[in-house]
Design goal:
The radius of gyration is 20 Å and the shape is elongated. The protein has 3 helices and 2 strands. It is mainly alpha-helical and 73 residues long. Helix content is 53%, strand content 11%. Strand 1 (40-43) and strand 2 form a beta hairpin.
Length: 73
């Protein structure tokens, strides 16, 4: 199979268990991409640690923080 259309057609013919296995397989292959988009700790002034958001993350405005804290257990 050399094209995405051929792969999609072949995956449609799979039974549900094999589709689930294919999804797990592909998800594991994508994991390294996702980890690069996580927040990370960076050194700040006076030896403090700061949490640096990944590219494309929403800004940490007061409104966003309040909204996040509302869902916090």
């Amino acid at each position: 199979m050399s094209t995405l259309l051929e792969i999609e057609a072949a995956s449609e013919a799979l039974p549900p268990e094999q589709k689930a296995e294919l999804v797990r397989f592909l998800t594991l292959r994508l994991a390294p991409i996702e980890t690069s988009r996580r927040a990370r700790l960076v050194e700040g002034p006076n030896g403090t640690l700061l949490l640096e958001a990944p590219p494309g993350a929403p800004p940490m405005t007061t409104e966003n923080i309040k909204r996040l804290l509302e869902d916090f257990p």
